[in-house]
Design a protein that fits this description.
This protein has a single domain, classed as 3-Layer(aba) Sandwich (Rossmann fold). Helices cover 51% and strands 12% of the residues. It is built from 8 helices and 5 strands; from the N terminus they run βαβαααβαβααβα. A 5-stranded parallel beta sheet has the order 2-3-1-4-5, with helices on both faces. Helix 2 crosses helix 4. The longest helix has 15 residues. It is globular.
Length: 166
């Protein structure tokens, strides 16, 4: 399994879908699984039940992936922060889509579908998550000033050169 991680707005869903197509594997966006299961959007989950409920749902969705599933998975920006999720990621090839906070803010603006954008400590959150993302990643790729197609081309090459792990 290949898992894409990174801060919100890094392009995990877009890159994940393109990469899956390019390497002929299925694609799952964990956020969409959570929304489908809840019957509402992530913003609505945050509003109705809070972030803790969303994180619980997110981890449950991650745990319910089929055993041996070998596709491309995009996870929400907070998923890699939880030790239980990290155990799942340890058995995958993890790609960190790295970007700056300025790029995220410019790209997303004040998108109401992104409840974490309203976090008063956004810079602190970004910095803390970036450290964890970097530690978990088998591949880190800078995603600013490059098209999604170029990112996928680069990732295909990096994946081909990545030594398999036991």
């Amino acid at each position: 399994m290949i898992v894409l991680i990174g801060f919100m707005g890094a392009g995990k869903t877009t890159i994940g879908a393109l990469l899956a197509t390019a390497i002929d594997r299925p694609f799952i966006d964990l956020d969409r699984l959570v929304e489908n299961s809840a019957g509402c959007t992530i913003a609505q989950i945050f509003s109705r039940w809070g972030e803790a409920d969303f994180r619980r749902r997110e981890f449950e969705a991650l745990q319910h992936l089929p055993a041996g599933w070998n596709g491309v998975l995009a996870v929400g920006g907070g998923a890699p922060m939880h030790p239980e999720a990290q155990l799942v990621l340890n058995s995958a090839t993890v790609i960190y889509l790295q970007t700056s906070l300025d790029h995220v803010i410019a790209r997303l603006g004040n998108d109401p579908s992104r409840p974490m954008l309203r976090n008063k400590n956004l810079e602190e959150l970004f910095n803390a998550r970036s450290v964890i993302y970097g530690a978990l990643a088998d591949i880190t790729i800078w995603v600013e000033d490059i098209t999604p197609d170029q990112i996928v081309t680069n990732l295909k090459s990096l994946l081909a050169n990545l030594k398999p792990t036991d």
